[in-house]
Amino acid sequence: MRTLSQQLAMYAAYHRHRANVATHLVGIPLIVIAVTVLLSRPGWSLSVIVVSPALIAVVAVLAYYFLLDVGLALVMAFLLALSLWFGAWCAAQSTLTWLSIGVGAFVIGWALQLVGHAFEGRKPAFLDDIMGLLIGPLFVVVEMLSFAGVRKNPGKVQE
Questions:
Q1: Within a domain: residue 5?
Q2: Of the candidates 150, 147, 156, which has an alpha carbon nearest to the alpha carbon of residue 75?
Q3: How many domains does the chain have?
Q4: What is the pLDDT along the chain (159 residues), one digit of tens a residue?
Q5: Using an 8 Å Cβ cutoff, are 12 and 139 in contact?
Q6: Which of 39, 95, 138, 145 has a Cα-to-Cα distance from 69 of 20 to 30 A?
Q7: Can you tell me the distance from the alpha carbon of 142 to that of 151, in angstroms, rounded to the nearest whole number?
């Protein structure tokens, strides 16, 4: 398994243009939220927890993130918990509202990705390595923590 630094470096190589990075900082969270919302139905109540395809996916993704970096996984666990909460709220709404929020966020998120890669002049990373779909959210968190001066970005490509 490649290290977090190796994966972030590979991902960053596809994201050098500032406009592309900026669109990803908005687009990737929208896609993560959209997938969580759309996978929040059906849900099965088991005492204090609602089990849904979204929860199963989040647990699987977090297991992978914990293998890569415990600190980032904890940040992602918090963010994904918020996404699960929002997804559950959306799933409790009418079907039209649930689908409008989920599909709308998904379409807008991917549109931003495509606009960003038009600036970049390079295809998305996941087309060469499917793991890019899992590394993208970590890339966003690392970029935000780096901007805030909290964490150095180990995958930052030097221009």
A1: no
A2: 150
A3: 1
A4: 788 888 888 877 777 778 878 888 999 999 999 999 999 998 777 777 778 999 999 999 999 999 999 999 999 999 999 999 999 999 999 999 999 999 999 999 999 988 988 877 777 777 776 777 899 899 899 888 888 877 666 555 433
A5: yes
A6: 39
A7: 7
d(CA 102, CA 15): 26
Cα gap 145→18, rounded to integer Å: 16
Structural domain of 95: 27-147
The answer to whether residue 12 is domain-embedded is no
Distances (CA, A) of 100 to 38, 103, 106, 114, 126: 10, 5, 10, 21, 26
Q: Which of 129, 122, 156 is nearest to 142 (CA)?
A: 156
Q: Are 29 and 140 in contact (CB under 8 A)?
A: yes
Whether residue 18 lies inside any domain: the answer is no
Question: What are the residue ranges of helices labelled H in the chain?
Answer: 4-13, 18-38, 53-68, 70-91, 95-120, 132-147
Cβ contacts of 16 within 8 Å, gap of 6 or more? 120, 157, 159
Helix (H) / strand (E) element for 50: namely strand 49-51
